[in-house]
Predict the 3D structure of the following.
Amino acid sequence: MADIKHLSSYHKLAFELKYKGYSYQNIADGLNNKCPKSRPAKFSQQTIKDWFKEDGRLYKAYCVYENEMDQIHAETMEIVRKAGARVREENFRLANEMLVALMGSSDDAVKLAAIKEILDRVEGKPKENINFNEMRISEMSFQERWNLIPYEIKLRLSRNQYPKETAEMIYNWIEIGKTNPKKSAPKENPNPNQ
């Protein structure tokens, strides 16, 4: 810690307040409230500025104080981070052990839930598949079917990168919900947003 023993109590308080980010006016107000009998005159904002300017009375001592406090805070944060990581790791291990223990339950529903949770954590949750039947698709609007088409397919359609038959099948599906090859492709771009 910086050698601030030779400094008065109000100088030490000014260090603390400046380190905490207080403005010079707030430091002056704080000193006037906490140390009213330290000086016959009140502390002013200009006095505090003068103390901390480069050639001021407290500048060098405050730089040392600030560096030491920064180092203390960095060390403290590292200790907290390591402790947090250790607690997370211990709890993670405990949670996994509990899941494995639940797999030995006599209740099949509990076993199944534990197995599902472990598999989801290891393999990832399975993607949900949306199952459309032909009736449901034909009931959709033109816009809803268009929105089901992946962007890459729309892009290839707009660039005429599909063979004519394939493009016609896609356009027919968008238009009527079926891939009827007898129906011709629409003359305009089916995207209603363009």
Q: What stands out?
A: The chain has three domains: 9-68, 80-123, 130-194.
